[in-house]
Amino acid sequence: MSQLKPQILALSEQYFEDTIAIRRRFHEYPELSFKEYETSKFIQEKLTEYGISFESGIVETGVVALIKGQNPNSKCIALRADIDALPIHEMNNVSYASKNKGVMHACGHDFHTASLLGVARILNELKDKWEGSIKLIFQPGEEKLPGGASLMIEEGVLENPKVNKIIGQHVSPELDCGVIGMKEGMFMASADEIYIDVIGKGGHAAIPEGRINPLVIASKIITCLYDRFDKVNDTPSVLSIGVIQGGSAGNIIPEKVSMQGTFRAMDEDWRAKAYQIIEEICLNTSKEMGGECDLEIRKGYPFLKNDVPFTEHCFQQATEFMASNSVIKIPKRMTAEDFSYYSHHVPSCFYRIGVGDKSGARKHLHNPNFNVEEAALKYSIGLMSWLAISS
Asked: Could you say which DSSP state residue 68 is in?
């Protein structure tokens, strides 16, 4: 395989500017989860241009391409990119800023998708020089439950041909441009959505007799939840309440207060127990204070666990392909990713690629000012191509 390294590096350089243009095209026309119709169409147009066969319409907007090398039935390695954007209004002053009002690629999925198209181009050009088959998964709906990964798996994306291993990447503004971060074993948390409605008895705020203020109950629930979960230190987990809505005027006690939050964990037993704790605190606190409570916990993505031998192999291969000081081990994180579904079916390696400005400026994910250092695309398309053929 070593003889292919200079060819991959040369092609990464050759296709770099094209990949930037493609990334900017995706960034300019972002689409929300499961509505990525134009994005999907553009992906199909590029694959057709490259002469790569594909299937479309998987989970409606998903696209799956297959490149066959020598001895194509010997193995199948899958590469995945997510294609959806977020409901965020972009504030970047760049020529390729979002033209779709209130929608933005604020999580780097434009980078991931453009990169995978660049990888497809490289792998297809070298297909007579590597073994097996490589499946390219352009996946919708990473940002929205139940997660496009779970739906694509249900529709057979890991079969025909059967996927032996899968690789994915995610941009990381915390890492300098071109730095690769990997973590074997447990890497990312499960993610559940919490919805709490507290019902009281509304009325005039100046006549509180007989009224039950749901805002007071809600504040007590939040305090109790944080007191309980902040004391957990034997297993990584996080509970946060991010939304509280209720009331219309300062002199009116509302009938209802609604809250939304998230729970993250890396242990399924603790995850199940936490559901019971959340329910007990919400229902008991409301009852004790004379109100009622409706609670919904929407079970989200599972934890993401990188296969240890495979990730160690990818770490070694990445170190060989890039300068050794450009590939580092990073800690586990409490963010979540629906790539986790794949990791529960086949050996997986999900890694981070640095897109941070080396000047020290960091434009963080899910932020209206998020952007990437585009020079990272050159490293991205080269490394993923290398990992695919050496896995």
From this structure: E
pLDDT of residue 338: 98
Comparing C-alpha atoms, which of 359, 109, 334, 147 is closest to residue 236? Answer: 334
CA–CA distance, 6 with 305 (Å, rounded to integer)? 32
The confidence score (pLDDT) of residue 208 equals 86
Q: Which two tokens stand for residue 209?
A: 């007799």
For residue 362, the model assigns a pLDDT of 67
Closest CA to 379 of 185, 86, 29, 115: 115
382 vs 97: CA distance, rounded Å: 26
User: Angle at CA 50, nearest 5°, toward 49 and 56?
Assistant: 75
Per-residue pLDDT at 360: 60
Cβ atoms of residues 58 and 152 within 8 Å: yes
Domain ranges of the chain: 2-188+303-390, 190-298
CA distances 128 to 48, 68, 87, 389, Å, are 19, 9, 42, 11
Sign of the dihedral defined by the CA atoms of residues 238, 106, 18, 75, in that order: positive
For 320, list phi and psi in degrees, rounded to 5: -70, -40
Is the separation of the CB atoms in 133 and 68 below 8 Å?
Answer: yes
* Low-confidence spans in the chain with pLDDT less than 70: 1, 358-362
Looking at residue 145, what is its pLDDT? 94
Task: Quote the Cα angle for 42-46-47, to 5°.
Answer: 115
> What CATH class does 190-298 carry?
alpha beta
Right CATH for 2-188+303-390 from 3.40.50.720, 3.40.50.300, 3.40.630.10, 3.30.450.20: 3.40.630.10
Burial of 305 per CB tally in 10 Å (0-12, 13-18, 19+): buried
